[in-house]
Amino acid sequence: MGEKKFRADQIFAWLHVKKVSDFDLMSNISAQLRARLKEKFCLKSLFVVKKLESNRDNTVKYLYRLSDGNHIESVLMEYEHGNTVCVSTQVGCKMGCRFCASTIAGYKRDLLPSEILLQVYTAERESGRKIGGVVLMGIGEPLDNYDNVVAFLGQVSSKDGMDLSLRHVSLSTCGLVPKIYELSKLKLGLTLSVSLHAADNVSRSAIMPVNDRYDINELMKACRDYFAVTGRRISFEYALIDGHNDSREDAAKLAKLLGDFVCHVNIIPVNKIKERNYHSDRKSAQRFRGYLEELGINATVRRTLGADIDAACGQLRREYEI
Ligand code: SAH
């Protein structure tokens, strides 16, 4: 636009440090330039349709409307070490995992890098709480929107912007193997979480169609490569479903599969969604953890946050889109 280079830095700081959503708040930019910016660009924002606050912990769930009328969800969670936001990466999801509410009505579109970033900025502004971590575990499959997710990671960690260390970011995938190889090459320092949920192909395929594309052997090979290339320990998610993947034999298969691989297992009692009849509870999860421990595998049971506000992904959006 023929402006001096430092103007770009000023505008970047307004957007990513002060996080304003109106050009007129950019007080060190002349009125004339602000008018030109308004003609050429539009600053998008997320409209907060609903905000649910847990009475049990400080979890807050936001339902946002995007500028095209679609809805997404984010969840703000409080841990001992600070506040973390769980963000969505797509509107809906193609992956079809049987237990997951986000995929039931299918996929609509990918989120733009700015739409992922705005979930972090808006949660911070709305709550007045400082955000110290991001997990890409909301609606959507992050590695199915690879380029935009990588652009988002660059923006959120920008030294001139929010400057969030990627050490405080976790990306969860259902196992898109080629993209795991691609991601490893970037050596971003984030934590890769892999939604394993079963230790043999028959029971994994029964709940996760992606397993028919990339089976457990291919997935584990990619995970071992990821660790070899990045040196970052992988976290395996295991959504426990009573009667499906919770037996002593299942634990033995999991222990055999992981063997001496440097990783962490996170057991999640499956969240009940109304469209499916899957259950489990903390007691089953603790029992399964015990089986794993006897076999020398360290595991944790994920803390349940926001249980009273349906804080798991995709449940709120569905009420609004139907
Ligand atoms: N698509 C990515 C990230 C989004 S889901 C992935 O599959 O990893 C984030 C995590 O929540 C995944 O481990 C997913 O399998 C899990 N999840 C989805 N629905 C769930 C439910 N009803 N109960 C427990 N975990 C669930």
Brief digest:
By secondary structure, this protein is α/β, with parallel strands linked by helices. 36% of the residues lie in helices and 21% in strands.
Mind explaining what this structure looks like?
- The protein is an alpha/beta fold and 322 residues long.
- The protein folds into 2 domains: 1-43, DNA polymerase, domain 1 (Orthogonal Bundle), CATH 1.10.150.530; 46-321, Aldolase class I (TIM Barrel, Alpha-Beta Barrel), CATH 3.20.20.70.
- Helices cover 36% and strands 21% of the residues.
- Helix 5 links the parallel strand 8 (169-173) and strand 9 (191-195).
- The longest helix is centred in the middle third of the chain and has 15 residues, at 113-127.
- The chain starts with a helix and ends with a helix.
- The site of S-adenosyl-L-homocysteine (SAH) has 18 residues, from strand 8 and strand 10.
Low-confidence stretches: none
Count of individual domains = 2
Give the end-to-end Cα distance, rounded to a whole number of Å.
44 Å
| Helix share, percent | 25-40%
CATH class of the largest domain: Alpha Beta
Under the CATH scheme, the architecture of the largest domain is: Alpha-Beta Barrel
Q: What is the number of helices?
A: 11
Main sheet record: 10 strands, mixed
What hetero molecules are bound to the protein chains?
Answer: S-adenosyl-L-homocysteine
CATH fourth-tier homologous superfamily of the largest domain: Aldolase class I
**What fold name goes in the CATH topology slot of the largest domain?**
TIM Barrel
Radius of gyration from CA coordinates? 21 Å
Trace the largest sheet across and list its strands. 1-2-3-4-7-8-9-10-11-12
Number of beta strands: 12
Mean of all residue-level pLDDT scores: 94
Bulk shape: globular
In N-to-C order, the SSE pattern is: HHEEEEEEHEHEHEHHHEHEHEH
Counting helices, strands and paired strands, the structural category is alpha/beta
What proportion strand?
15-25%
